[in-house]
Structures are given as structure tokens and as C-alpha cells.
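During the reporting period the student researcher (J.K.) took over the structure-prediction task from the postdoctoral fellow and processed the backlog of single-chain submissions. One of the processed entries is reproduced below for the supervisory committee.
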Amino acid sequence: MRIASSTIYTDSVYNINNRTADLAKLQNQLSTGRKILTPADDPVASARSLDLTQASSQNSQYITNIGAGSSSLSLSESSMQAVVTTIQDIQQLAVQSGNPALTSSEKNILDADLKGKYQQMLGLANATDGNGQYLFSGFKGSTKPFNELSFGNIRYDGDQGQRKVQIAASRQIPISDSGADIFVKIKDGNSVFTTAMGTNNGGPNTGTGVISPGVVADPVKWANPTNTDRYSVKFHVVPDPADASKTLTSYDIIDSDPKSANYNKSLIDSYDYTNDIPAGGRTDTAATPNTYPRVYSSGSDIVLKGLPGELTPLNANWDFGASVSVSGVPNDQDSFTTESSKSVDLFTTIGDFSKALTDYADNSTSRATFQNQLNTALSNLNNALGNVVTKQANIGSRLNEMDSINSTSTDLNVQYQQTISDLTGLDYVKGISDFTSTQTYLDAARKAFSSVQDLSLFKYIQ
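J.K. obtained the following C-alpha cells:
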């Protein structure tokens, strides 16, 4: 068999070039630690690696988002804890102010401390994160949420939204809160009805009666459609015919809802204080010296339902499942009111409490008035504290969720990197072995070419 010299040269160059290319590829693999240098090396593994790299990058961004969100929520949680502490301090002031031995001057001293707590609360409500965004302004991160119009009168300029960050492919989590939900929209504890001091013929009560917060024992009965929520407990006091040193005190429960068809009528015996004769009152007689339908006993429950022996109620068998109590000594025509529970903001509560402290005078009537105002303040502060603690717990649950997702995302990134490494990473033992053997093959090809390039008849022609 005869082989042309050109064939020997061509095959030798081909082998040397191939081995050189193989050696260069292996050298690149060893220097980069990757076995796939171009998609052509392994199209399937390359495509899979690209998908995993994109997923890992996206997951890394979620981890970054979690870090930023956790920082903001941690600041919110710290601010909320400071709010809780401040409310508790104000509650202590309120309890201290209830000491009957304190004079008006001493209550003014407490008021000075209260005003300091008020400013502290306002500062917390306007707290910002590290980027200058307000924590409690809803979506409006750059808008100052609470602006003081006057002491105790605060305008909320934020909105009801919550700024959110993406922390997983299918999960966004709020990192801000509406200040209205924390400091403004504070419902009464039973979320049904509240009590307050009424009037005496258009002026303030003159006795020492103090009303308790309302209690709803049966929400189903309270939902009775004939229940208007708005009532007046009115007292009538007359001398006791049997003992001039004593008095007979009775009361009536009157519908005080102006929109009601039964406005100004007695729930107990249907007496119409607007149209019955004499207008606006009842006629006491020797046989019935006090015509108001129920006898008053200090501290006893005043139930909003019909009692045995009451024959002509406004609504038959009425029972609204609720009660209040009045203690002390009401004067004739003193009254107390009930109405549907409504939202009371924290700043108004502090402002009203401050006014009660500064308006206090050293007499029995003022003490009773202050006690009613104090009861309202304590109730509102307790409701505000419960509301803030609930919001704080919600922030804490979001932080816990972020921590959990962050841990999962971090583990997932490790898995992504491991899978990418398995797909594209180089086995160094095999790589070094292949490099060494290829280098040997290249050396052999060079030596073989060096040997065969002299196999030519021209060398033997003289």
C-alpha cells in the first residue's frame, strides 16, 4: 500500500491540531473549574444551569428584600413597644390622679407630666425608618402622618394602605402600617356601647353619681331591632314623707335617640316626656311620692330589660342583654347616657384627660364629675393599649414569617448552587487525568510527525 507524502503531512497536522485544541479546552476547564465552557459542550445541562442561575438570582433578591423589610418592621416593633410603655405610664398617672386626697394643684402637677407623655406619643407616631420613610403613614411613606392642630386635636394625613415587599415568588408582606388603625380607630372594649355623664336640665350634673362602663352579657339580645343603643338614665329625688332626713331616689330609662319613633319615652312604662301632661315630667302624689318607675340603690345594676311587675313597657318582654351601674348620690334630674360605641383616637383621649385634670375643683360635685371622666379615660386607655398590643403582635408575626422564609430561601440558594455545580462544575481528578493524557497524546503526535516527515525518496536522490 502506498501513502502519499501529502497524506502523511495532512493527517499529522490534523492530529496535532486536535490534540492542541483538546489540551486548550482542558486547560480552560481546569482554570475556570467549569466543565461546560459553551452551550455546545452540553446543551441540556447548559439550559438547565441557566434556569437554575436565574432562579438563584431571583431568590437572592428575595433575601435582600427580606433584609430590608425586616429592618423596617423591627423599627416599627420597637416604636410600638415604646408606645405600649408610654400608654402604661399614662395609665399609672390616671390611677394616681384618682386618689381623692389629691388637690387641684396636685392634679395640675400630674397634668404637666401627662403633657410630656403626649409629646412623646406624638413623636413615636411620627417615627421614621433609616431611609426617612414614615413607619405609620400607610402608602404615603414621605408624608408626615400626624399633625397637631391643637392640644389633643390631631389630623391624620396618611392613608389606609400598607407598603409591601416581595419576599417569595407568591408572597408579598406589608412593611408599613396605617397610623389610623393604631392611634385613631380605637373601639370601645365591648365594641357595642359606651356610657357617659349626662346633664341636669341642660347643665352639668349636680350630684355625686358615677356611672360604670356598659356591659353586654348577651350580644344576641343586644341585636334586637327595637334596641336603639341610645338611652338616658334619669334620676328623680324627693324627700321621704316618712322621714324628712332621708330622700327617695328613683330613676327611669328613656329612649334618647332623636331618630327613634319612641324618642323621649320611657322604656319601663311608656311615659312620654314630650307629650304627656305635665309636659316633661311626672306628677308626684301623696300615695306615690316618687313616680319614677324604678328605685335606685347605689352600686346596683341598672339592667336594660323589663322587670317583674312592670306592666306597661314600651316594648313587650324587652330585654337587651346589657346593664350599667351607678354609684354615689345623684341629685334630682341628674342623668347618664348610653350610646353606640364609636372610635376614639388616643390623642383625643389624652387631651380629654388633661382637661379633666385642669378643670378639677376641690368639691364633691367636681370629684364626681372627675371620676366619671377618669373612668372614661381609663377605659379608652385600656382599649388603646389592647389595640396597640394587637398591632404589635401582628408586626411580630410578620417578622417571624420573614425569618422563616429567609431561612428557607438561604437553604434553597445552597441547593441551587449545589445543583449548578453538579451540572457545570469540573471533576478535577478526571480533568487533571484527561489533561495529562492529552498532553501525552500531543507529545506523541509531535514526535511521530517528526519521525515520519523524513520518510521521502527525495532524501535518497544524489
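The committee noted the following: The CA atoms of residues 445 and 451 lie 10 Å apart.
J.K. will present the remaining backlog at the next meeting.
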